[in-house]
Write a structure and sequence with these properties.
heterodimer, A: mainly beta, six-stranded mixed beta sheet, 12 strands, B: 11 strands, 51% strand
Chain lengths: 114, 112
């Protein structure tokens, strides 16, 4: 079946540190891949997406590249800020059957200290 | 402003008392979906709809009902709520799911 595995948290970094949150997936065909962010007390916001292999999604200094060969979509940011503290979810939508459903990873909580 | 609006944001109710959580989107999206978020279990889909009068079960539909009589609205109905339905609920909509969903702000439901 379709699934997403992302690194367990929590992750604690100092401001201006480099961030990587690993995400790998299992799916048939070529799913679309997403990173969502959930700030405390809020809903999920789409952070970035990629719809085909080798696409790079980017937004607000965050980047992730769709790697078909390693079935990965790791989230990176070169210099995190305190305001980036949130829970990050990797997700996919499969292209074969059940294409309406987002399949989420468990989420990774990031805390950035000043 | 393009958005998905859920109401109420917070709700405390008693076991067995029917309730409805409303969801409305102003983006003319075809796809709408309900998710619940629980600690340790992540986000799970309850129901989804591909268009007016077209709905289908997600991963955890037991104890829930939905309807899609209008394109913009997708209410979630709990006919007889139980404590195991205490959760954070999100409604989401999309015009083309391959581009992702837009989520509402969530409804925190407590059933006592």
């Amino acid at each position: 079946g379709n699934s997403v595995t992302q690194m367990e948290g929590p992750v604690t970094l100092s401001e201006e540190a480099f961030l990587t949150i690993n995400c790998t997936y299992t799916a048939t065909g070529y799913p679309s891949l997403f990173w969502y962010v959930q700030y405390p007390g809020e809903g999920l916001q789409l952070l970035l997406k990629a719809t085909k292999a080798d696409d790079k999604g980017s937004n607000k200094g965050f980047e992730a590249t769709y790697r078909k060969e390693t079935t990965s979509f790791h989230l990176e940011k070169g210099s995190v800020q305190v305001s980036d503290s949130a829970v990050y979810f990797c997700a996919l939508i499969p292209t074969q059957g059940g294409s309406e459903k987002l399949v989420f990873g468990k989420g990774t909580k990031l805390t950035v200290n000043p | 402003e393009a958005q998905v609006t859920q109401n109420p944001r917070y709700l405390i109710t008693v076991t067995g008392k029917k309730l409805t959580v409303t969801c409305s989107q102003n983006m003319n999206h075809e796809y709408m979906s309900w998710y619940r978020q629980d600690p340790g279990l992540g986000l799970r889909q309850i129901y989804y709809s591909m268009n007016v009068e077209v709905t289908d079960k997600g991963d955890v539909p037991e104890g829930y009902k939905v309807s899609r009589k209008e394109k913009r609205n997708f209410p979630l109905i709990l006919e007889s709520p139980s404590p195991n339905q205490t959760s954070l609920y999100f409604c989401a909509s999309s015009s083309w799911t391959q581009y992702g969903y837009t989520f509402g702000s969530g409804t925190r439901l407590t059933v006592v």
